[in-house]
Design brief:
heterodimer; A: 290 residues; mainly alpha; 0% strand; elongated; B: 531 residues; globular
């Protein structure tokens, strides 16, 4: 007698939201992430100062009323740079996750739907991509094709593809043997239709959790690349490059390193907390808290 | 003084009373059966008796075990009790065993923990215990893993774990619900002999009156957390003073009203269908070996005929159903439905064939996509029509079939989780009806349901057969269901059909070994009470 499979929990969306907002990790993460998002959004219409405005007389000013986060060694306003940098980081990470989702999820679903040779070859290809250390390879790609935001996006995006392919395949494989899929097949639905109508909606939660985590990894990767000078190019500010430039100023202007560092920490921590909180709600089996 | 004595036990989750003033006693060597439908509080009674209530449960009253109140004991003291003085047998043997540890280790674990003996001694004890439950180490070595055993063997291991330390009280929560009738009879025999031999008290929880009647000395009938009736098992079941007891008993042997229909022409013709599954290779060089799930099966179903397919679990019933529905391809053989050979059919012919046959599954929870509305789910098979109906037309068709199965039109906008098991099974039938099929294949459609709900769903099938002339292939291991609703029965064993005939003739006078085994093992309330 087959009993209801407890491994797949399905909650209606509003319950997920209600449960998630009760999780302290999720709420903290949400607040931190919103701060960064808000900074990025505001920078589209307004920043305290022009980020390319160099005022040598105002250089290395510590935080004050006129410059809340102080100024760097060119006299640029650090708060403005952080705001524009937030926009850059988010854009790079978002598009990179998008690449992973748009290519990886269909691949994973296809592998799960067809099985056999297609599944085996797709997943072994996946393993090959996985075998390269992601950040090192991204450095290689940007070094070959030239530094810049677009190449950074592509480099990070490529390594998101196998992650999403794997998650999607595992999620889909757990749903395929269920009775409602058999019912859909008896209703003459094609594998494609079944994937769109039955499989995807039921594994959305897995993808959302993985998406949040990949998003934070994307921000970290972007910061790493631009720290090496391989990300967004000057004068467009980026957190990683701000850190790199602040390195030499550490002894005379520690605030120049503090604020971009904090921005990275807050955004990565926020997204990870959000992902963890969501996972606790959506996937009780992996929950670390009780 | 009895072994376990529950006094005025009330159990609350918030304001909701799960158990309300429940009292009963179990003496040494005594079997107490607790019967009730889902949600009646049976499992909570069991968990309370072993001190494993979930968090947030507020318990009042007394649970006296050996004169000590479990509700007032510290968790560390309870740990000494559990597994040593009180053993527990769970419903699902697959999930009750740890898949990465050998059965010997799992039986020895409790012995080591409670008696502080060496591992070697504990393993010797485990071997003796496993031998006692019918798994002699010569045949089933201690270093086997749970997945290497069959369902019945796994349940024996669970019983060995529970009995290894000779507990004073054994709690068995639906110990045979996951097993077929033949295994059920074996496991019940084992429990009975263990209890007799060791003077253990047994709390047997079941939804099946016949099982309890055949086993228990005393019976407690629970409804919504209240004790409806309690007393000596046979007396209670013979007298049936309470209407609820009578209702349970009649529902479990319920026969829906059937209208005799004239036999139509042949609708489904299966000839020599065979299905092999590739077994994993021993090494990459060894020859591919196969397991034959369905072996040269031939059968016919006429229009408007109700046919039962009975057999033990793993005999190939479900595989056969899937072959007929063209969800699995047969390795060889042909399946013809209304003159169309569905294995050689093109896309359009296959759609036409699928319109003629639909299926209903066992598990009312797993057979719907939880994220779609009932309207979406019920109209899904309309995908098979050549001319797709408009949304309004589809909605009209959906409300028609829903009213046929006794559901309101306002069900359309709701989600499956808002319905009870029985209602969901009606929705599943509605979904199967929407393309106006001639044949419905129902795979254990009532075995996950409570007896009273089961009766209602059987009524729906009988009514559809009478009014629409719907033919039905009922796959079941429950002979009551076969008797209640079908004209003809096919008995399947190890992939073959071994016996076939008019239902009551085959079930009253079985000829093949497989059919005899099934009939003898099936518990029959009337026979038990007459004895």
């Amino acid at each position: 007698m087959a009993l209801p499979n407890p491994n797949i929990t399905v909650l209606p969306t509003r319950d997920v939201w209600a449960m998630a907002t009760r999780s302290p990790a999720f709420v903290t993460g949400l607040i931190l992430t919103s701060i960064i998002l808000l900074l990025g959004l505001i920078s589209l219409v307004w920043t305290p100062y022009d980020v390319s405005l160099v005022t040598i007389a105002e250089r290395l000013k510590t935080p004050s009323h006129s410059h809340l986060f102080g100024t760097d060694h060119f006299g640029r306003d650090i708060l403005s740079m952080i705001m524009v940098g937030a926009r850059n980081s988010i854009a790079v990470a978002l598009v990179a996750v998008g690449i992973g989702v748009i290519i990886g999820v269909p691949l994973g679903c296809w592998a799960a739907a067809r099985g056999g040779l297609i599944d085996a070859s797709l997943m072994r290809g996946n393993d090959v991509v996985f075998a390269f250390p992601a950040l090192l390879s991204a450095v290689m790609i940007t070094a070959i094709f030239g530094p810049g935001a677009v190449n950074a996006i592509i480099a990070i995006g490529i390594f998101n593809i196998p992650v999403f392919a794997r998650v999607a395949r595992a999620g889909a494989m757990a749903i395929w043997p269920r009775d409602f899929i058999l019912a859909a097949r008896a209703a003459g639905k094609s594998r494609m239709q079944i994937t769109l109508e039955h499989i995807l909606p039921n594994m959305m939660h897995l993808l959302i959790v993985q998406g949040t985590i990949q998003f934070s990894l994307g921000i970290l990767a972007e910061a790493g690349l631009s720290y090496l000078g391989l990300g967004a190019q000057p004068p467009s500010p980026s957190w990683g490059r701000m850190l790199a430039e602040a390195q030499t100023m550490m002894s005379i202007g520690p605030h120049t390193a503090l604020f971009p560092g904090l921005a990275i920490v807050i955004s990565v921590l926020g997204l990870n907390l959000m992902g963890d909180g969501l996972r606790d709600v959506l996937d009780p089996k992996l929950s670390r808290s009780k | 003084m009895s072994l376990l004595s529950i006094r005025n036990l009330t159990l609350k989750f918030g304001d909701f009373n799960v158990l309300d003033n429940v009292s009963f006693d179990i003496g040494a060597g005594e079997i107490l059966g607790i019967v009730g439908e889902s949600g009646s509080g049976k499992t909570m009674t069991a968990l309370a008796s072993i001190g494993l209530l979930p968090e947030g449960a507020g318990a009042e009253g007394e649970i006296l075990f050996d004169r000590r109140n479990l509700l007032e004991m510290e968790d560390t003291d309870l740990c000494d009790l559990r597994g040593d003085d009180i053993g527990m047998v769970f419903q699902e043997p697959m999930t009750a065993l740890n898949p990465v540890r050998t059965i010997g280790d799992q039986v020895a674990e409790g012995v080591i923990w409670h008696t502080k003996v060496s591992k070697a001694e504990a393993l010797t004890k485990a071997a003796q215990m496993l031998e006692r439950v019918g798994l002699p180490p010569v045949d089933v070595p201690l270093d086997r893993y749970p997945h290497e055993l069959s369902g019945g063997q796994r349940q024996r291991v669970v019983i060995a774990i529970a009995c290894a330390l000779n507990p004073k009280l054994l709690i068995a929560d639906e110990p045979t619900t996951a097993l077929d009738v033949v295994l059920q009879a074996q496991i019940l025999d084992l429990l009975k002999s263990l209890v007799k031999e060791r003077g253990t008290g047994l709390m047997l929880i079941s939804h099946d009156l016949a099982v309890v009647a055949s086993m228990a000395d005393k019976i407690v009938i629970l409804q919504n957390g209240k004790v409806v009736e309690a007393g000596p098992a046979k007396q209670v079941l013979r007298e049936m003073r309470q209407p609820y007891t009578r209702q349970l008993a009649t529902a479990s042997t319920y026969m829906p009203k059937r209208v005799k229909r004239p036999q139509g022409s042949i609708l489904l013709n299966v000839s020599n269908a065979t299905r092999d599954y590739a077994l994993p290779r021993k090494s990459i060089f060894s020859k591919q070996t196969f397991f034959r799930a369905v072996d040269e099966v031939s059968l016919t179903i006429n229009e408007g005929e109700m046919v039962a397919l009975v057999g033990r679990s793993g005999c190939g019933k479900s595989t056969l159903a899937r072959i007929i529905l063209a969800l699995h391809k047969p390795t060889s053989g042909t399946i013809e439905l209304g003159g169309i050979n569905i294995n050689a059919a093109n896309e359009a012919e296959l759609r036409a064939a699928r319109r003629q046959m639909q299926m209903v599954f066992q598990d009312p929870y797993g057979s719907f996509n939880p994220r779609k509305t009932v309207e979406w789910l019920v109209t899904e098979p309309l995908n098979l029509l050549d001319v797709k109906p408009s949304r309004d037309e589809a909605r009209g068709l959906a409300s028609n079939v829903l009213s046929r199965v006794g559901l309101d039109t306002n069900a359309l906008n709701r989600y499956p989780h808002q319905f009870s098991g029985g209602q969901r099974q009606r929705i599943a039938i509605a979904r199967a009806l929407i393309t106006q099929p001639k044949l419905i294949i129902a795979d254990e459609p009532v075995s996950a349901l409570d007896v009273s709900i089961r009766a209602q769903v059987l009524d729906v099938f009988a009514e559809l057969n009478a009014t629409l002339g719907l033919a039905c292939l009922f796959i079941t291991h429950d002979l009551h269901v076969a008797r209640a609703i079908t004209d003809r029965v096919l008995v399947m064993s190890q992939g073959r059909i071994v016996e076939e005939g008019v239902t009551f003739q085959v079930l009253d006078n079985p000829q093949s070994d497989a059919a005899k085994e099934l009939v003898n093992a099936a518990p029959d309330l009337a026979k038990i009470l007459a004895a």
